[in-house]
Amino acid sequence: MSPSGAMANGKGSFSVSAGLQRNNLNNAKTETTKRFIGSANLSYMPAEKWNLMLNYNNFSIRQLPTIYTNPDALLLRQVNQTFTFIPTYTIKQDTSAIHSFSVTTNYNDVNDRNILTKKFGNMQSTMLSFNHSSLFTKNSNSISSGLNFNQIKTFGVTNTQLGITGGFSKNILKQKVLANINVNCNLSYINNVQDGSIINASAFVRYELKRHSFSLNSTLINTVSKQFNGYTDLISSIGYQFSLK
Asked: 19 in a domain, yes or no?
């Protein structure tokens, strides 16, 4: 079932979907698994520069015993819900530039309803980010920046990350070369005590010559932690493409 439509004189739209799944139709297995998958989406543009997006997702799973007399020791019962809200404000300067500002809020709740495992299986996560991007249409260059907050609570442990992001994309040599760099830096906290930091940086360069395209992609991940082993990973790849057209 997936109804959808427009509203508010075309300024908004909505969609809803829901479905049920069930196995073991002939009762030959030791358990029966039932799943419910549902989602709802709402988009509304109150003014030319504003856009609001609201989303809800639900994934539920339940196993029922066919033979076992103590189902809670073996069977899964879980409800996973996610709420997302994203308001976006866009500024257009004639046709030369587009500036976009958005706030993303996301909350996820995992509810373990098995009485023996819910102490370990329950989890709540919260994400909040403020993002900016600017696209300069004349030369297709762009810049981006952001602030982010992420928190996960599970089994008596609260893991929090606070950080900033930044990046740019630039075309040079008459748009034959595209260079893209993004950096994400986060401070990590465990139970409100600073534990370390996480740095994620990536760089991408592509050079196009007629029907030939050469690319280089690198990603660097560096973690520092007082309670866990830190590490540094560097992953690089080289690509080549040939177009027949």
From this structure: no
From first to last of its 245 residues, what are the pLDDT tens digits of the chain? Answer: 678 888 888 889 999 999 988 887 777 777 788 889 999 999 999 988 999 999 999 999 887 776 655 544 556 788 999 999 999 999 987 778 999 999 999 999 999 888 777 778 899 999 999 999 999 988 889 999 999 999 999 988 999 999 999 999 999 888 889 999 999 999 999 999 999 999 999 999 999 988 899 999 999 999 999 988 889 999 999 999 998 87
Taking the C-alpha atoms of residue 120 and residue 34, their distance in angstroms, rounded to an integer, is: 22
Tokens coding 81: 């819900």
Q: Phi/psi of residue 164, each to 5°?
A: -130, 155
208 occurs within a structural domain = yes
> Taking the model in full, what pTM does it have?
0.80
What tokens appear for 224 in the block?
């520092």
Nearest to 82 by CA among 126, 117, 19, 45: 126
Domain tally for the chain?
1
Asked whether residue 236 is assigned to any structural domain, the reply reads yes
Other Cβ atoms within 10 Å of 93 Cβ, number: 11
Phi, psi of 71 (to 5 degrees): -70, -30
